[in-house]
Design goal:
Layout (H helix, E strand, L loop, with lengths): L1 E4 L2 E4 L7 H15 L4 E4 L6 H15 L7 E5 L2 H22 L6 E4 L3 H4 L3 H4 L4 H12 L1 H9 L7 H10 L7 E3 L12 E5 L1 H4 L1 H7 L8 E4 L5 H8 L2 E4 H24 L1 H18 L13 H18 L6 E3 L1 H12 L3 H5 L1 H11 L9 H15 L4 E8 L7 E9 L3 H10 L2 E6 L7 H6 L5 E4 L9 E8 L16 H17 L3 E6 L2 H14 L1 H6 L3 E4 L4 H16 L4 E6 L3 H5 L9 E5 L9 H14 L3 H17 L10 E6 L6 H4 L4 H4 L9 E2 H15 L7 E2 L2 E2 L4 H8 L8
Parallel strand pairs: 3-13, 3-14, 4-7, 4-8, 5-6, 5-7, 8-13, 15-20, 15-21, 16-18, 16-19, 17-18, 19-20
Antiparallel strand pairs: 1-2, 9-12, 10-11, 11-12, 22-23
GO molecular function: 4 iron, 4 sulfur cluster binding; 5'-3' DNA helicase activity; ATP binding; damaged DNA binding; hydrolase activity, acting on acid anhydrides, in phosphorus-containing anhydrides; metal ion binding
Subcellular location: Nucleus
Protein name: DNA 5'-3' helicase
Length: 724
């Protein structure tokens, strides 16, 4: 369908549109017109991605004289592929209606591991090995040597690309990860968060993106954590030992180069200054005592030795960046300016030494990354040194952690550089906390509800078992045999009532392991498996993928299955359990973070002092967004239906449940707030009976839940304001 939103003709590739999709587009256009940033919470399963892509690409097409680029950031390759598939569907529709003028070129960017087409390179075991294998075939010095010696291997794909690139023209279209891309002129780029938020990557990948770009962070409920991780570094003894090996190898290479090509070392300093100026990182001169390669290696040796000394401690130590830098300067004579240049100086030296096996040098890169961060930022960080993990105090495992506490530091350059940044997800409640955490002022901040033709979502709060004993994963109750038994009995009852798939989320791997063992010993697991097969998420990606495949097969064959998973795990963040794969999701407990973590305690202290966010408020907000993310896996469209059980007495408290998204709260009835197991089973039976009835997909209860082009035209003329 084609319709107007003010001066923009929107091309939407379906015959009908949900009212919330239309409202979402209106608010999004407001933000684009204002050239400002926005926060938009859109219920899960309501077509957020296609609404967003339709509006922004239509906006781009409507302003040919003012080209706008869309940078669409996703968290996983799976999400990237889904976005590109939606974009291709939309582009085909636009071409059909506009012809050649729908000149949108869209591409997906990912790591070499996902994009490389050279079989000898992608056979390497991990991403870093693939990068190194590629570099061994495509580095400029390797290719130069291959001209003189044809026996030196190069990459035929890259060579063919180089020959064709100057003349090649990539026609408009959507190019996914399965295609070979060689284009710098795309209107739409879909890539990972890290390509904009991690300064090491953003400086290379995103430096040429123009200010007029619109940046979208999709599924952005955890964006503050992604920002913090991008600026945090951990160093263990293995890192330091590896860094020492790296420095020995570099010293050997420097001596070899001195004997064979000393001019290259002399020329290196000039190239370094030029490189920094081009990247816009620092315009000041490199400190004199790290200009020469051997001097820089000597500085890094002293730094590694200092870190080794700090890891010898038997006590936990915590200090700020300023104190830490002063200590480094006092003990090994390396000042803040030298530290700040470490990462770029190392990059330059590795180019000069023509090092291709970059995967072997990850340890020294980690050291230089930490040095540059601690030399750049004076606040928003802590250095925490722990001699062991306090959950396993008998195993020495010293670690030095540079912990970022301020999410706004990583995203600040994005807000400053691009005219519109859209932060969107199905879970952004309470929405007013994100501007404080990320330190920005959105021009639009809006949470949308879901228009439904029937109550296809049934959230419940279960506070006690059939024996009326309370259930909770609160620390003093979580290992209570009565709680474990009541949780088990709840699942036994539900597997006998609910058809198809049931997904259970636990607060941690250790809690899941403990409770599954307890259920096995008491015979509860056997009772569950008389009704449905049970599959379990582990910390091994391959095992979990296999478990998910078999879970789906069990659901497809009609028997149904149960999948045990963990909040904050891979499954909770990226796997959909739509239709018969998820008719019920049970959240066992409230997924609070491990509150004795020193890194978390330091962050809470920083949030309280800097942003006046209370510890309890942040912990509850964080736990409830994780819980909402888990239960939201079960509804992926309006034709779908499913139940959500929040199994913990703490969810009945208003201060906890009020932080759930509005689209869940609007379906949470007062009568479902304080249930026992037998009451929940009764409600489940009634709900499933209702869902088995035929229903009108276009509207109910006097409201339209699908709008046609005619409806939108009426609204544009002011005659259809009451449609929704």
């Amino acid at each position: 369908m084609k319709f107007q939103i003010e001066d923009v003709t929107v091309y939407f590739p379906y015959d009908n549109i949900y009212p919330e999709q239309y409202s979402y587009m209106v608010e999004l256009k407001r933000a684009l017109d204002a050239k400002g940033h926005c926060l938009l919470e859109m219920p899960t399963g309501t077509g957020k991605t296609i609404a967003l892509l339709s509006l922004i690409t239509s906006y781009v097409l409507s302003k040919p004289s003012n080209p706008v680029k869309l940078l669409y950031c996703t968290r996983t390759v799976h999400e990237m592929e889904k976005t590109l598939a939606e974009l291709r569907f939309l582009h085909n529709y636009q071409v059909k209606h506009l012809g050649p003028s729908a000149r949108i070129l869209a591409l997906g960017l990912s790591s070499r591991k996902n994009l490389c087409v050279n079989p000898s390179v992608i056979s390497a075991e991990n991403r870093d090995s693939v990068d190194a294998a590629c570099r061994k075939l495509t580095a400029s010095w390797v290719r130069a040597m291959a001209v003189e010696n044809p026996n030196i291997p190069t990459c035929e794909f890259f060579e063919n690309y180089e020959k064709a690139a100057s003349d090649a023209v990539l026609p408009p279209g959507v190019y996914t990860l399965q295609h070979v891309i060689w284009c710098k002129f795309a209107n739409v780029v879909v890539y990972s968060y890290q390509y904009l938020l991690d300064p090491k990557v953003a400086g290379i990948i995103s430096k040429e993106m123009q200010r007029e770009s619109v940046v979208v962070f999709d599924e952005a409920h955890n964006i503050d954590n992604v920002c913090i991780e991008a600026l945090s570094v951990s160093v263990r003894m293995q890192t330091l030992e590896g860094a020492t090996r790296n420095l020995n190898r570099m010293s050997q290479e420097i001596e070899r180069l001195k004997a064979t090509d000393a001019g290259r070392l002399r020329a290196e300093y000039n190239r370094l200054v030029e490189g920094l100026a081009q990247r816009g990182t620092f315009l000041e001169a490199v400190p004199g005592n790290i200009r020469r390669a051997e001097h820089f290696v000597s500085v890094l040796r002293r730094l590694v030795q200092y870190f080794k000394g700090r890891l010898q401690t038997e006590n936990v130590e915590k200090e700020g960046p300023v104190t830490f830098v002063a200590s480094i300067n006092a003990q090994v004579g390396i000042d803040q300016k030298m530290l700040r240049f470490c990462y770029d100086r190392l990059h330059s030296l590795m180019l000069t030494l023509e090092i291709t096996d970059t995967d072997e040098f990850l340890h020294i890169q980690t050291i230089c990354d930490l040095a540059t961060l601690v030399g750049t930022y004076t606040r928003g960080f802590s250095i925490i040194i722990e001699p062991f993990d306090e959950r396993m105090p008998h195993i020495p495992d010293p670690v030095l952690q540079l912990c970022c506490h301020d999410a706004s530091l990583a995203i600040k350059p994005v807000f400053e550089r691009f005219q519109s940044v859209v932060i969107t997800s199905g879970t952004l409640s309470p929405i007013d906390l994100y501007p404080r955490l990320l330190n920005f002022n959105p021009v639009v901040s809006r949470s949308f509800t879901m228009s439904l033709t029937r109550d296809c979502i049934c959230p419940m709060v279960l506070t006690r078992g059939s024996d009326q004993l309370p259930v909770s994963t609160k620390y003093d109750l979580r290992s209570d045999p009565g709680v474990e038994k009541n949780y088990g009995k709840l699942l036994v009852e539900m597997v006998s009532v609910v058809p198809d798939g049931i997904v259970c989320f636990f607060v941690s791997y250790s809690y899941m392991d403990g409770i599954v063992n307890s259920w096995h010993e008491s015979g509860i697991l056997k009772e569950i498996m008389q009704h449905k097969l049970v599959f379990i998420e582990t910390q091994d990606v391959v095992e979990t993928t296999l478990a998910l495949d078999n879970y789906r097969r069990a659901c497809d064959c009609g028997r149904g299955a149960v999948f045990f998973s963990v909040a904050r795990g891979k499954v909770a963040e990226g796997i959909d359990f739509d239709r018969h794969y998820g008719r019920l999701v049970i959240m066992f407990g409230v997924p609070f973070q491990y509150t004795l973590s020193r890194i978390l305690l330091a962050r809470l202290e920083y949030l309280r002092e800097t942003f006046q966010i209370k510890e309890g408020d942040f912990l509850t907000f964080d736990a409830l967004r994780q819980a909402a993310q888990c239960v939201g896996r079960v509804i992926r469209s309006k034709a779908d239906y499913g139940m959500m059980i929040f199994a913990d007495k703490r969810y009945s408290r208003h201060d906890k449940r009020s932080k759930l998204p509005g689209w869940i709260l609007s379906h949470l009835r007062d009568a479902h707030l304080n249930l026992s197991t037998d009451m929940a089973v009764h409600i489940a039976r009634e709900f499933l009976r209702r869902m088995a009835q035929p229903y009108d997909k276009t509207g109910a209860m006097g409201k339209k839940t699908l709008l046609s082009q005619e409806d939108l035209e009426k609204m544009a003329n002011g005659a259809g304001e009451m449609l929704f």
